[in-house]
Description:
Elements: E1 5-6, H1 16-25, H2 44-61, E2 67-72, H3 75-87, E3 93-98, H4 101-110, E4 115-121, E5 144-148, E6 150-151, E7 156-157, E8 168-172, E9 189-193, E10 204-209, H5 226-231, H6 241-256, H7 259-280, E11 284-285, E12 297-302, H8 308-317, E13 320-321, E14 332-335, H9 342-358
Parallel strand pairs: 1-13, 3-4, 3-5, 5-8, 8-9
Antiparallel strand pairs: 2-10, 6-7, 9-10, 11-12, 12-14
Helix pairs in contact: 1-6, 2-6, 3-4, 7-9
Bound molecules: pyridoxal-5'-phosphate.
Pyridoxal-5'-phosphate binds next to helix 3.
Amino acid sequence: MSKVYNFSAGPSVFPKSVLEQAKEELLDWQGSGMSVMEMSHRGKHFSIIAEELESDLRSLMAVPDNYKVLFLQGGASAQFSLVPQNILNGKTKACYVQTGAWSEKAVSDAKNYCDVLVSASSEDSHYTTIPDESDWVIDPHAAYLHYTSNETIHGVEFQKAPDANGLTLISDMSSNILSRKIDVGQHGLIYAGTQKNMGPAGVTVVIVRDDLIGNASKTTPAVFDYAEQAKSQSMLNTPATYNWYLVGLVLKWLKAQGGVEAMEQLNIAKAAKLYQAIDQSSLYSNPVAAPYRSRMNVPFNLQDTSLDQQFLIAAEANGLFELRGHRLVGGMRASIYNAMPEAGVLTLIDFMAEFERTH
Ligand SMILES: *Cc1c(COP(=O)(O)O)cnc(C)c1O
C-alpha cells in the first residue's frame, strides 16, 4: 500500500507507531497470554492499563487533585444532556456561547433541562468569528457558562479560555483537547469524545471539579451520574476496555513526543503553513476571521465550486483522503490533529498548489 494521509474530522488519523504496537500486542498483552479485549475490567492486568490511562492524562493536562477524571460512553453528544442533569444543582438557568454547529446542538439539548441564555452567538456571521467577550450577556444566577473550545465543522477556535464572570466554566473540547496547553483549573468541567485527538471512538473523557458533583437530578441514570461513576472509577458498568487501552497508548505516544507543549508548537507550525498556502492562492479561501482560525480543522473553499469533485478525486489519487467539507458548510476541510505528521500537511500544500497550477 502506498502512503496515504487521512484528513478525516473524526474518527481520525492515529499515530502509526501506536497502531503497530496494538497489532504487536493484539493476541498477547505483555506476556499475559491474553488480548486486552478478553481481560476482565477488574483483573490485575487491566487495572494497570486503567491506572496508567488516568495518571497519564492527569500529567499531560496537569489536572489538579481536586478534579475527577472519568472515562464514559455515549460520546460528547450524550454530555450535551448530562452536563445540565449533573451540574445544574437545583438552578434553572445556564449560559451558552454559540459559535458553530456543535454548540448549537449543546444549546438545543440543554433546553430540555433548563432555561438557556445564549450569551453570545456568531450565527449571523455564519460562524466565521467569535463575538467579543465584552459583549456577552451573562446571568449571575446561571449554573454555568458553556463554550465549545473548537468548532470542528466551522473551523473556529478559542485561542484562550473565556472569562466566565464568576460562573462555573464548562467546555466541550472534543476536537482540540491535548492539542494546546489549557488551564484545567479555570474550568469546572471539560468533556471530550476521544475520536478526534485521543484515540478511537467509544470513550468520552469528563474532567470535573469535586465540588460540582453529587447533586445530579433524580432522573439521571446511574451510569451517567458523574458522582456514581467517580466512586466506581468509571466502572459502574463495563467500560469500553479495548478503547481505554488504545487511548492509553495514544497518551504514551504523546508523552514521548514531548507532551502537550511540544505538540502545540508542531500544531502551530502545521496550521500556519496551511493557512498561508490558502491565503496566498487565488483558487482557495478560508472564511474564518484570522484570530479565530482553528489549528485543528481547516475548512477551505475552491473559488470555482464546479471543481470540487475533481479536486477530491485528484487528492485521493495522490493519497490525500477525507478532504470533503462537512455537508453543513460544503467545500473542503483538512483536519490536522496531533497525529497528522507535518509531512502530511506539506504533501497537501504541494498537491493544492499543483492542482491550482493545472486548473
Ligand atoms: C465530534 C464532536 C462532537 C460529537 O461527538 P460524538 O462522539 O459523536 O458524540 C461534539 N462536539 C464536538 C466539538 C465535536 O467535534
